[in-house]
Amino acid sequence: MNAPARTLELGRVGESVKRVDAIPKVTGEFAYSSDLFAAGMLWGHTVRSPHAHALIEEVDISEAVGMAGVHAVLTHTDVPGAKAYGLEFADQPVLAIERVRYFGEPVAIVAAEHPEQARRAAERIRVAYEPLEPVVDPERATEQEPIHDGRPTAGHGFRDDPRPNVVRSIVIRHGDPDAQGEVTVSGVYELGIQDQAFLGPESGLAVPDGEGGVDVYVATQWLHVDRDQVAPCLGLDPEQVRIHLSGVGGAFGGREDLSMQIHASMLALHTNRPVKMVYNREESFVGHIHRHPAKIWMEHRAKRDGKLVNVRARILLDGGAYASSSAAVTANASAFACGPYAVENALVECACVYTNNPPCGAMRGFGAVQSCFAHEAQMDKLGAELGMDPVELRLRNALAPGDSLPTGQKITGSFPAAEVIRRAAALPIPEPEELPRDALRLPGGSGNTTRGEGVRRGVGFAVGFKNVCYSEGFDDSTAARVRLAASDDGIAAVVHCAAAEVGQGVVNVILQTARTELDLDEVVLGSATTSSVGSAGSASASRMTWMAAGAVQLACRAAKDELERRGGDLEHGETIDVERVYHHRPTTPLDRETGQVTGDGAHVAYICAAMRVVAEVDVELGLTRVVWIGTAQDVGKAVNPQAVYGQIEGGIAQGLGLALMEEIQTQDGLITNASFTDYLIPTTLDMPPVEAQLVEEPEPDAPYGVKGVGEPPTVVSTAAVASALRDATGRQLTRVPVRPDEIVGLP
Amino acid sequence: MRVELTVNGERREADAWAGESLLYVLRERLGLPGSKNACEQGECGSCSVLLDGRLVCACLVLAAQADGHELVTVEGLGEEAGLHPVQEAFAETGAVQCGFCTPGFVVATADLLARNPRPSDDEIREALSGNLCRCTGYAKIFDAVRLAAGS
Amino acid sequence: MDVLTPTTLDEALRMKAERPDAVPIQGGTDVMVELNFDRARPAVLLNLNELAELRGWSRENGSIRLGAGLTYTEAMEAPLAEKLPALAEASRTVGGPQIRNRGTVGGNLGTASPAGDALPPLLIGDAVVELASIRGERTVPLNEFLTGPKRNALADDELILGARVRAAHGAQTFMKVGPRNAMVISVVSLALTVDRERDEVRAAFGSAGPVARLVSARLADLDGFPERVAAAASPIDDVRGSAAYRSHALSVLTARAVERCLQ
Ligand SMILES: Cc1cc2nc3c(=O)[nH]c(=O)nc-3n(C[C@H](O)[C@H](O)[C@H](O)COP(=O)(O)OP(=O)(O)OC[C@H]3O[C@@H](n4cnc5c(N)ncnc54)[C@H](O)[C@@H]3O)c2cc1C
Ligand code: FES
Ligand code: FES
Asked: Which of A7, A25, A194, A647 would best serve as a mutation to test chain B binding (most B beta carbons within 10 A)?
């Protein structure tokens, strides 16, 4: 077993501590954003485009307006302020204007007393569309009509790429991109669209404050950036929009972009009633962005001894209809394209394009997942070509502190790539289990398809890495506020930090840090709203532990200093209230032409993981059972070891899902499997036991040496599972999710 | 239409639109949002409740079908003295992350252990295969079930 | 929308005669998904949950009678599971425990999906479907009852009472291919029995044509049987799998099932 089963109630940094929200979550009392209720509340509903690309000729709401129970029917003409918003570029209309660019794009919104009334009214809104040819092939998108007027992402310091429909393109030229090796392997790799599939659907409650402003209770990853997008569209000052963190039922990147926030607020302000919106599962699949599907061409040139000489990669990401965080995903996919290996020469060309496919943006692993799948397949191929053990090959090339990435950035912090490889490779793999055994422990599982016929075993290995914190000059700082007051047994503290608790356990990081710094048990978590404390930045990029710990540490130390100044004690009624903002070390943009670092460097720090997978594959039916996964992960310092193991196990499950079953399928831009019936995520019978080892090599710049832990398991597990499948089947398996057809060798 | 049922030992009644699921009535009419609404298509088990002692998805029961029947939801699992042992175990082992799946898992686990107090690992996996969790990868959920079974 | 909840079968049949547009709902595992996702808004729902007449199963002169309200969980329990092993194995593949506790054989017949997992095991057991209305009762062989994808021979005023099926006379098995190891709608499925009394191998497949379908052969004539079963299928490409894969898998499943049942 990985983690201690027993936890402490009030532990400090480095101890396994029971989640502070565990009890309300197990009893059902914890209030998620879909559980909210207010007196006089109405239900909002969204009318969405059935087309992937069409002109809107007319929206006729006249019939819907007068229906029983209906209080508002709004279209783009009712958007009070800015008509468009976006995480990085405001290219997405609040409600479609003249044109829809993807299947499910919001066109109108309704508020009614009962959800059924809202649905019936929505049905009566007549939208006349003139369908347009959708741009759906990313390889052809740069030759087709632009789907956006102007170039929404041009002029942001990005490389000038005049082709239509380019969101961002990056070229990294490192060393001599024409350098030759003694051995060359190449391949073309593809990944389908993955969905975050968090279980808590998009939902929330908007409550008008009676003075023209609005309070929005919502599940999000970044309160302040929500506010900064919502307020302009409502035509309000930021202070008039207060975003409150409600219970978040998982996020994984899918809640970085807005969903129902502006819509519910518009309806609430229009009706002067609280408005609740809850997406159903089908709507959720169109209501948020997905992981970018990718096609990757890679060539590795190496010496006979396995040393990499040159990596050449071309990466094409399909960003879908709106930019979301595509520009940053593009940067990650290219910066990490060569893997955690030292390569002196590289040429990486990466482009993300607009299409009329589902919009893509942030998902756990953020660009690194796609690249890792390709570079690890290549490393396996190279190992086979050289007749070299795959672990040995990786060790020979492992990046280490002092080495440089293809972006030219020198690794200055901790980077135990060789150590994670060694530790993962040293984990003993389980012996093959004898037959006969219950079908549940065979490929096909409860489907009862084999008693052992056709079953082959394979062992795979992969290594991956990515960055922690935002990059390329973005100062994603985090604020924390500490309030000390006299209590019956001394001093009690309240800590506010707007870090979004999305399930990852940052609430415990905040509390454990505060207890450690203040040397106090009595620490309470204060409210997280945009009005109680400054921005925390996003719960993403594996950054929240580092940044929240940094901010809470600063605020606590300031509060303690103040307490000392006041003689070490507080009178009854006397308080200390300090807020501090923590910044990670500065970063700078990549050179727009060469992709090489400028100034301080593009990234703050890196995290890596290595993984070993044992799988059994029924090679006649193409079905798989992953038997066991062993991993070693670079975590810096585990603040709450139990939670770290939990992140690793959960992150692996998502990568395994992408390897084996998860894909949003589309036809001419329309999603054809928007349900949990046909978009499959791993069940209890799909996840193997995980043996995880934490490699704690402190990050010099970070509080307590912490790093992030959420993403590496997802980055590496897709590649590692695919590697095991290749070993079992002897097939190339260049596309994930791997379809049974490919395993059995059907065209 | 009017629906009368016993929820967690209490007689409750609600006026509902005829097309409403039991899940909607619990969450939106009876003030019991503990049962979750992750899919409303029977695929995730987050809405698991015990209907006349049998584990079912509340999202797939028509509210009117529960009329006159007995229901236990996650809110009614705990004992007077405090948490149900399964709830304790989930909190203790780190089986809860975002927690959205937790009420469903807790109810399904309580049902499993009531029928089979010492389940094997295969039995645990099969009994919980109708409950999806997107956060934990299930390992700590299995730890929780084993801990609860031992207690 | 309205819900009618009869407490006796007679009352139910009268209601159905009066309101032929009423949609029966038993376990609700198909009907509720339609309602929750706004794909159907029937004027009336006919709740069959209170009808004792539809529950359980019984022996009837050598055959087994399954009530329409028999759940998958019940079909997995002894002694029924020993009499109809393929149905029990199929039931174990249906959804998760929550679905198996509610979903019924009658509902599977009512939905008549090509992917209905109860159908292949019933087909290899020569099932006949029992239907009733105020006009009287009738029985229809299952292969005639299934008239197309999600279509069956049920008249507007009729309800399904249950199915009569031949108990296993020899080994049986059921296999279902899905892209994950639990909780899947079948990509392709197969029920097979070696019936030594009749000197016959009977195979029925699901999800490989518009309806589940039976193919049989003499025990002495098993050469090429897997290919014959695959050839009898007319699968399509859809989000769950390709036609080519379904045909391929069907012949693999058949070969394995024959071997399993001959042992
Ligand atoms: C998550 C999930 C997983 C599933 N997995 C599977 C699976 O693996 N395999 C599979 O085969 N199915 C599966 N299903 C579908 C469903 O569970 C089955 O078809 C089940 O047998 C339906 O039974 P029910 O009693 O719930 O039917 P209901 O939903 O109550 O009814 C289904 C249909 O039958 C009609 N009907 C029901 N009873 C009668 C009657 N007595 N007389 C006339 N008409 C009647 C109804 O009007 C309706 O048209 C799944 C469903 C869900 C939600
Ligand atoms: S909400 Fe009922 S099963 Fe998912
Ligand atoms: S804890 Fe988030 S879905 Fe299970």
From this structure: A25
Fold of B85-150: DNA polymerase; domain 1 (1.10.150)
Distance (Å) from CA B62 to ligand 1 centroid: 14
Residues with Cβ within 8 Å of A84's Cβ and at least 6 positions away in sequence, in order, are A90, A91, A92, A93, A94, A233
| Distance of residue B150 Cα from the nearest chain C Cα, in angstroms | 23
**Ligand 2 mean position to B59 CA, how many Å?**
6
pTM (predicted TM-score): 0.98
Bridge partners, A457 (sequence order): A616
CATH architecture entry for A22-30+477-583: 2-Layer Sandwich (3.30)
Taking the CA of residue B45 and the nearest CA in chain A, the distance in Å comes to 11
Whole-number Å distance between alpha carbons of A538 and A364: 13
Verify whether ligand 3 is closer than 6 Å to residue B98 (CB atom). Answer: yes
State if residue C120 touches ligand 1 by the CB under 6 angstroms criterion. Answer: no
pLDDT at B98: 98
A184 and A301 in contact (C-beta within 8 Å)?
A: yes
pLDDT digits (tens, 9 = 90+) for A81-104: 999 999 999 999 999 999 999 999
Domain ranges for chain B, please list them: 2-76, 85-150
Which residues in A377-519 belong to E strands, given as ranges?
A: 455-468, 478-487, 490-496
| CATH architecture, range C172-262 | 2-Layer Sandwich (3.30)
B26 touches ligand 2 (CB under 6 Å): no
Q: What is the band of A4 on the pLDDT scale with cuts at 50, 70, 90?
A: low
Sorting pLDDT into bands at 50, 70 and 90, what band is A111? very high
Distance from residue A541's CA to the centre of ligand 3 (Å): 20
Note whether A594 contacts C: Cβ–Cβ < 8 A.
no
User: Cα–Cα distance between B146 and A177 in angstroms, integer?
Assistant: 55
CATH, domain B2-76, list 3.30.1160.10, 3.40.50.2300, 3.40.50.920, 3.10.20.30: 3.10.20.30
pLDDT of residue A1: 45
Q: Which ligand is the nearest neighbour of the Cα of B39?
A: 2
Q: Which atom of ligand 1 is nearest to the CA of C32?
A: 29
SS (H, E, C) A41-63: CEEEEEEECCCCCEEEEEEECHH
**Residue B142 beta carbon below 6 angstroms from any ligand 3 atom:** no
Task: Please tell me the predicted confidence (pLDDT) of residue A528.
Answer: 84
Residue A434 has pLDDT above 60, yes or no: yes
Tell me the pLDDT tens digit for each residue of C27-43.
999 999 999 999 999 99
Residues in chain C: 263
| ipTM exceeds 0.85, yes or no | yes
